[in-house]
Design goal:
Radius of gyration: 13 Å
Distance between the termini: 35 Å
Strand content: 15-25%
Helix content: 25-40%
Strand order of the largest sheet: 1-3-2
Structural class: alpha+beta
CATH topology: Multidrug-efflux Transporter Regulator, Chain: A, Domain 2
Largest sheet: 3 strands, antiparallel
Shape: globular
CATH architecture: Orthogonal Bundle
Number of domains: 1
Number of helices: 3
CATH class: Mainly Alpha
């Protein structure tokens, strides 16, 4: 299985969020290290795993849920 690795700017272009929002608000609250992103070679650079992000973004569509402004989900 081949995975697609994205920089913050490339992920920003795909999900239409500002790179700063991804770094400051989504990383470590919604996007988790070791699942959605990793730091290659122990450095500062972050690479996001597109397939894992896409899977989790669209897995909630199967359920009756309402996205909330703070990033959470209301299950109705």
């Amino acid at each position: 299985m081949s995975l697609t690795y994205l920089t913050t700017d490339a992920l920003s272009a795909r999900i239409h969020y500002d790179p700063r929002t991804i770094r400051d608000r989504l990383k470590d609250s919604v996007l988790l290290e070791g699942i959605h992103y990793f730091r290659p070679f122990g450095g500062r650079k972050i690479l996001f795993i597109w397939e894992h992000i896409e899977r989790d973004m669209f897995s909630q569509l199967d359920q009756l849920s309402i996205p909330m402004a703070n990033g959470g989900v209301c299950h109705g």
